């Protein structure tokens, strides 16, 4: 690969890593997708209760982003009070095997990674 190609704005804008993964690889997106895998249809309040450390604003922003990218579906019911349900789209479901692989890897590696962090933080040469 031509190293100069990495500095080309067109290449960077169209790079799948930057364009797609940057949108779904924040901790909230992955947690929302994972939660919607466990509970296929959820209302906003249910999602917020399942992910208690996310603010309402961040949950709203993240759901909008996931909806914009076609990963999450938002269904609004015309009733009072308003009812809105969220679920994974087929595109969102197609992401699950990849996320589940990453989640499994993280579970398998977590103890060793935490141990390495403890070792590094106690290393006076850093």
Describe this structure in words.
By secondary structure, this protein is mainly alpha-helical. The chain has helices at residues 9-14, 16-24, 27-38, 44-50, 56-68, 90-121, and strands spanning 42-43, 72-77, 83-88. It contains six helices and three strands. The two termini are 34 Å apart. The model has no long low-confidence stretch (mean pLDDT 88).
In short:
It comes from Bacteroides mediterraneensis. With 126 residues, this protein is mainly alpha-helical.
Features:
single chain; 126 residues; mainly alpha; Arc Repressor Mutant, subunit A; 3-stranded antiparallel β-sheet; 3 strands; globular
Measured by DSSP, the beta-strand proportion falls in: 5-15%
Number of strands: 3
Order of helices and strands: HHHEHHEEH
The general outline is globular
Strand order of the largest sheet: 1-3-2
- Class based on secondary structure composition and strand pairing: mainly alpha
Q: In CATH, what is the class?
A: Mainly Alpha
CATH topology: Arc Repressor Mutant, subunit A
Radius of gyration: 19 Å
Query: What is the correct CATH architecture?
Result: Orthogonal Bundle
User: What's the tally of helices?
Assistant: 6
What's the mean pLDDT score? Answer: 88
Helix content class? 55-70%
Taking the alpha carbons of the first and last residues, their distance comes to 34 Å
CATH superfamily: Winged helix-like DNA-binding domain superfamily/Winged helix DNA-binding domain
Largest sheet: 3 strands, antiparallel
The total number of structural domains is: 1
Q: Regions with pLDDT < 50 over 5+ consecutive residues?
A: none
Protein name: Helix-turn-helix transcriptional regulator
Domain HTH hxlR-type: 15-114
Organism: Bacteroides mediterraneensis
Keywords: DNA-binding, Transcription, Transcription regulation
């Amino acid at each position: 690969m031509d190293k100069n190609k990495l500095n080309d704005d067109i290449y960077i804008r169209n790079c799948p890593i930057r364009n797609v993964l940057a949108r779904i690889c924040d901790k909230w997106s992955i947690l929302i997708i994972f939660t919607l895998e466990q509970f296929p249809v959820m209302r906003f309040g249910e999602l917020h209760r399942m992910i208690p450390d996310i603010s309402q604003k961040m949950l709203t922003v993240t759901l909008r982003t996931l909806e914009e990218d076609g990963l999450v579906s938002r269904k609004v019911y015309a009733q009072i009070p308003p009812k809105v349900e969220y679920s994974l789209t087929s595109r969102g479901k197609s992401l699950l095997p990849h996320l589940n692989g990453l989640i499994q890897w993280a579970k398998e590696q977590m103890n060793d990674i935490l141990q390495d962090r403890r070792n590094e933080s106690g290393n006076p040469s850093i």
